[in-house]
């Protein structure tokens, strides 16, 4: 008994200046990685000025029932900012959402909304998700730019995880040149797989330093190309200058991503 | 220092539960202090030890995924990234183990303390994950590999941020800062691969 009391006291004394920061990252479980959700676009660097969400896109947790991209409350409110230049992924009618899961909570339902309309719901009846989770949702009747709100409702807590995904259905009216990876086939293929046609230009350097390949002059914008700051491209006859080094993805066309491209 | 820490990044549980293992650990700690005096070296704290133990466990899990991804991913970008991670993990974990050895701390917090119990498990690689990955083909394989690596790195980032905020040992803090920057760059590339 004596020891039981004496030792912890000693421990405290020994750990001089130990400020045990009980960061409790229990609120970190998952988000949609593709098509990229708003928090994914923040974490990937596609959208700048997001704040702390860049380090924890999986942490958008809030009580169930909210219709806001941050789940309500005061945290991560940047996700609700529809004035921000969120890239929209060009998709067909059928969209497969892929989740990254960092904790496998028993799940009640997965829900997908556009506006106040629940487009799809998947009931897991309390099952634990696997290492990954994918849902294919049909968005027949929707066109143009839309924001999908996805909610992962946890079974054994009052909370849900929120992800908003900006999509552009059926290509855009202002974009006559079809983007390389768009599957604009009207037939709803079961999986609109984001086929890995984006050539992997992942350079072995870990730092996000510009790893550009090309461009001494102006080229036509193309998905899969690595651009560095100052690179110039043309898109639909307009010339843009690269503001942030990145590897271009379908959906990051210069007119839609002000964080990456500035018209010159 | 000698406290059994939870492996899962979940708060609580550190203060209570004076089980035999904990008491043994504390007794060991006391002995260590008496012998070494803990004088010369800058002080480290529980967060340092917890970060090193959790970080090593997370690296071990990540490596299970990366070794398969390095061999079998269709997209060379995934293979490159997996190989790069494995190389960095190797040198990082050697450094991390070195400090734990210097401090006479175990590489893993004892499982008997309920480390893997409860919520912590939810954050861990699960039995069957690697089998599921191996069984997948083509773009499915890449999608699962990228998702598993992202999940691992996101959990790692939480541990790293805990360390940068709470570390008392300058070299540990410095390593955690470097790893934070490196992992964030890799997360960005993985997200680009996921979106591609």
Q: Topology of this structure?
A:
The complex is a heterodimer of chains A (264) and B (196).
Chain A: H1 2-14, E1 30-34, H2 38-43, E2 61-63, E3 89-91, E4 94-101, E5 107-114, E6 117-123, E7 132-138, E8 144-154, E9 159-169, E10 219-220, E11 226-227, E12 232-235, E13 238-242, E14 246-247, E15 261-263
Parallel strand pairs in A: 3-9, 10-12
Antiparallel strand pairs in A: 1-4, 2-9, 4-7, 5-6, 5-8, 8-9, 11-14, 12-13, 13-15
Chain B: H1 20-36, H2 46-72, H3 76-102, H4 129-135, H5 138-166, H6 170-195
Give an account of the 3D structure.
The complex is a heterodimer of chains A (264) and B (196). Chain A has 264 residues and is mainly beta. Chain A folds into 2 domains: 30-169, Coagulation Factor XIII, Chain A, domain 1 (Distorted Sandwich); 197-264, Carbohydrate-binding module superfamily 5/12 (Seminal Fluid Protein  PDC-109 (Domain B), Ribbon), CATH 2.10.10. Chain A contains 2 helices and 15 strands. Chain A has helices spanning 2-14, 38-43, and strands at 30-34, 61-63, 89-91, 94-101, 107-114, 117-123, 132-138, 144-154, 159-169, 219-220, 226-227, 232-235, 238-242, 246-247, 261-263. The N and C termini of chain A lie far apart (76 Å). With 196 residues, chain B is mainly alpha-helical. Chain B is built from 6 helices and no strands. In chain B, α3 (76-102) runs antiparallel to α6 (170-195). Chain B is elongated. The model of chain B is unreliable at 1-18, 34-39 and 112-119 (pLDDT under 50). Chains A and B meet through α1, β4 and β14 of A and α1, α3, α4, α5 and α6 of B.
Keyphrases for this structure?
heterodimer; A: mainly beta; Coagulation Factor XIII, Chain A, domain 1; Seminal Fluid Protein  PDC-109 (Domain B); 2 domains; six-stranded mixed β-sheet; four-stranded mixed β-sheet; 2 helices; 7% helix; B: 196 residues; mainly alpha; elongated; disordered N terminus; Ferritin-like (chain B); DUF305_CopM-like (chain B)
């Amino acid at each position: 008994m004596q020891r039981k009391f004496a030792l912890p006291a000693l421990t405290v004394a020994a750990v001089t200046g130990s400020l045990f920061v009980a960061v409790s990252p229990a609120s970190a479980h998952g988000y949609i990685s593709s098509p990229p959700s708003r928090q994914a676009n923040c974490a990937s660097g596609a959208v700048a000025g997001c704040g702390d969400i860049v380090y924890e896109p999986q942490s958008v947790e809030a009580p169930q029932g909210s219709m806001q991209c941050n789940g309500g409350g005061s945290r991560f409110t940047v996700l609700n900012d529809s004035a921000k230049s969120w890239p929209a992924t060009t998709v067909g009618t059928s969209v497969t959402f892929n989740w990254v899961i960092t904790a496998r909570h028993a799940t009640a339902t997965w829900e997908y909304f556009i506006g106040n309309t629940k487009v799809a719901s998947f009931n897991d009846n309390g099952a634990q998700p696997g290492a990954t989770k994918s849902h294919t949702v049909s968005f027949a009747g929707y066109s143009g730019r839309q924001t999908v709100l996805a909610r992962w409702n946890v079974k054994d807590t009052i909370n849900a995880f929120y992800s908003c995904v900006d999509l552009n259905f059926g290509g855009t009216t202002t974009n006559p040149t079809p983007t390389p990876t768009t599957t604009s086939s009207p037939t709803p293929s079961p999986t609109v797989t984001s086929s890995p046609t984006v050539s992997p230009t992942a350079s072995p350097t870990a730092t996000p330093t510009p790893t550009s390949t090309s461009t001494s002059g102006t080229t036509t914008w193309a998905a899969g190309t690595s651009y560095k700051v100052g690179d110039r491209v043309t898109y639909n006859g307009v010339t843009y200058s690269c503001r942030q080094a990145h590897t271009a993805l379908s959906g990051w066309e210069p007119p839609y991503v002000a964080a990456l491209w500035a018209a010159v | 220092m000698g406290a059994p820490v939870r492996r899962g990044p979940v708060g609580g549980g550190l203060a209570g539960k004076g089980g035999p293992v904990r008491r043994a650990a504390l007794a060991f700690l006391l002995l260590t202090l008496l012998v070494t005096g803990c004088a010369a070296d800058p002080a480290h704290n529980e967060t340092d030890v917890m970060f090193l133990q959790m970080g090593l466990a997370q690296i071990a899990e990540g490596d299970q995924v990366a070794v398969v991804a390095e061999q079998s991913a269709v997209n060379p970008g995934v293979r490159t990234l997996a190989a790069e991670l494995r190389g960095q993990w190797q040198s990082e974990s050697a450094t991390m183990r070195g400090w734990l050895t210097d401090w006479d701390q175990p590489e893993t917090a004892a499982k008997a303390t309920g480390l893997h119990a409860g919520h912590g498990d939810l954050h861990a690689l699960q039995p069957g994950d690697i089998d599921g990955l191996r069984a997948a083909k083509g773009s499915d394989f890449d999608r699962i590999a990228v998702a598993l690596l992202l999940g691992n790195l996101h959990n790692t980032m939480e541990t790293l941020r805990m360390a940068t905020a709470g570390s008392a040992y300058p070299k540990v803090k410095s390593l955690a800062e470097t790893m934070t920057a490196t992992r964030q760059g890799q997360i960005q590339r993985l997200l680009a691969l996921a979106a591609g």
